[in-house]
Specification:
Layout: H1 3-7, E1 15-17, E2 24-30, H2 37-45, E3 49-54, E4 59-64, H3 69-74, E5 79-84, E6 86-89, H4 120-124, H5 127-132, E7 141-146, E8 165-166, H6 183-192, E9 208-213, E10 221-223, H7 224-236, E11 241-244, E12 252-253, H8 259-278, E13 282-286, E14 300-304, E15 307-311, E16 313-314, E17 324-330, E18 344-345, E19 356-361, E20 372-375, E21 378-381, E22 388-397, E23 400-408, H9 411-428, H10 435-445, H11 465-468
Parallel strand pairs: 7-9, 7-11, 8-9, 11-13, 13-17, 17-19
Antiparallel strand pairs: 1-6, 2-4, 2-5, 3-4, 6-10, 12-16, 14-15, 17-18, 20-21, 22-23
Helix pairs in contact: 6-9, 7-8, 9-10
Length: 471
């Protein structure tokens, strides 16, 4: 197995129908951005049971055991579409020193959070510069739509909101399995791990985390219905930023079998993102880990029992209108030379000028060899330190259970760095800003990498926390 395969949790690109033992699940979209009781009754008369109604975006989640439900519901006046819900396998408070007036970037920061010196990403985007200006994300809420979180982790618990919830049937929002990596905990920790004299520090350590579980903590899979509900829930529960470190390996079909149904599900998700923006919640997503040029893909040959065809694929959720897609950057040999370049485009990161909004630290394992290095008293193969270090769950230790931290890499790690910077910006401006204003500041303050201006690899640039809070 390659180092990259060991380091990055990726999706396997499978798509299937969501069904319970008794009934299949459907996403029903109305013609307009409403779904009143009268329309709901008509849909149920067609043979469905509404399990969730989202009048904010004109969508309902419906169960039915009728084989012809989609056709029947699709004929109801006022209904735009009724399609099977699809499951996707996704590419899976204050410290004692809080009154100290100055911070230094790692390495050798002297900070009393014991693992801060392992966070090269904090240096790359100059989080200490933002903290020195008094900005730590206070009065902001970041919703993490992911696989739940380790609710009792010492770096998560202090900032976790009690109305965190799950849209994965049979699974609660809290990840309680000892000895397993939890993607959502890693993402949440990058954003807002508390500055508490233990472990790591998030980009915005005073931001609050609204954990919204839309991916299974067991399989890493999720479905459109859960994601759509999760976005609306976050928007309605005070989220200023919605982070979706999700990605379907390869993408979703734009043409060929099933493409029309997928298009309707994507459209419903687009409505949810648009609604979130109307509630001043900015959606930030990972660009994907396929190493694809999203501007110039020529199509992929897909084959099944009915033959083969050339499919054009769209990155999801990276190509959702209204969302900011984030590419990943990384050093190559940071442990060998901490003063080196931290801004190489990660080898796996998707790119494309029409898609990428910004770039941020995501980590990589491009450094050859397995020689050991020691950083902050920790010895590992040198390439490991080029990954992103953050909370990840719990570990069994003699006599009990301990908080666990892990290195991993992906655009999943890049997106939360940007979400954290967005929280810093919003916090500076009183905890409420329009997404367009946040985007404007991100664009004005990011470091221009690559060719001048917006480019294929880094979009509007690699975010810079210190400069962002100067606007």
């Amino acid at each position: 197995m390659s180092k990259l395969a060991r380091a990055i949790t990726v999706a396997l690109g499978t798509i299937g129908f969501v069904a319970s033992a008794q009934a299949a699940t459907f996403v029903v979209t109305a013609n307009h951005l409403s779904f009143d009781g009268q329309l709901a009754r008509k849909v149920e008369a067609a043979g469905g049971t509404i399990t969730a109604r989202l009048p904010q975006i004109g969508v309902a989640i419906v169960e039915s055991n009728r084989n012809d439900f989609a056709a029947r519901a699709g004929k109801v006046p006022g209904v735009r579409s009724a399609v099977s819900n699809l499951s996707l396998q996704f590419d899976v408070p204050t410290a004692e020193s809080s009154l100290v007036e100055d911070f230094n970037n790692p390495p050798a920061s002297g900070d009393n959070d014991t693992r801060f010196d392992l966070q090269w990403g904090s240096a790359a985007i100059d989080v200490a510069g933002a903290w020195n200006q008094g900005q730590r994300g206070a009065d902001t809420v970041v919703a993490v739509l992911d696989s739940g979180v380790a609710c009792q982790h010492i770096d998560i618990a202090a900032n976790l909101l009690p109305d965190s919830t799950s849209f994965v049937p049979g699974e609660g929002v809290c990840h309680n399995t000892v000895g397993t990596f939890n993607h959502g905990t890693h993402v949440a920790g990058i954003i807002a791990a508390a500055d508490n004299a233990v472990g790591t520090i998030g980009v915005a350590p005073q931001a609050k985390i609204l954990a919204v579980k839309v991916l299974s903590g067991v399989t890493g899979g999720g479905d459109f219905g859960g994601i759509i509900q999760g976005i609306v829930y976050a928007a309605d529960h005070g989220a200023d930023v919605i982070n979706m470190s999700l990605g379907v390996r390869g993408g979703l079909p734009v043409n060929g079998p099933g493409a029309n149904e997928v298009a309707e599900l994507v459209n419903a998700t687009k409505r949810a993102v648009k609604y979130a923006r109307s509630q001043n919640a900015l959606t930030i997503v990972s660009a994907g880990n396929d190493g694809r040029d999203l501007d110039h893909d020529s199509g992929v040959e897909l084959c099944d029992a009915d033959g083969c065809y050339r499919a054009n694929l769209q990155a999801f959720p990276a190509q959702l209108p209204g969302a900011l897609a984030i590419a990943a950057t990384a050093p190559i040999g940071w442990a060998v030379d901490p003063s080196g370049n931290l801004d190489y485009l990660a080898s796996y990161s998707n790119y494309g000028q029409s898609v990428i909004s910004f770039a941020a630290p995501g980590g990589d394992s491009a450094l050859p060899g397995n020689e050991n290095c020691t950083v902050a008293g920790i010895t590992r193969p040198c390439w490991v330190f080029d990954l992103v270090f953050a909370p990840s769950g719990y570990a069994a230790v003699p006599g009990g259970i301990a908080n666990n931290y892990s290195w991993t890499a992906g655009t999943s790690m890049a997106a939360p760095h940007v979400s954290g910077v967005a929280a810093l910006i919003i916090g500076k401006h009183g905890g409420e800003m329009s997404p367009s204003e946040v985007e404007k500041i991100l664009r004005a303050s990011s470091d221009d990498l690559g060719k001048p201006g917006n480019d294929s690899e880094f979009g509007g640039g690699r975010v810079n926390a210190s400069r962002a809070v100067q606007y």
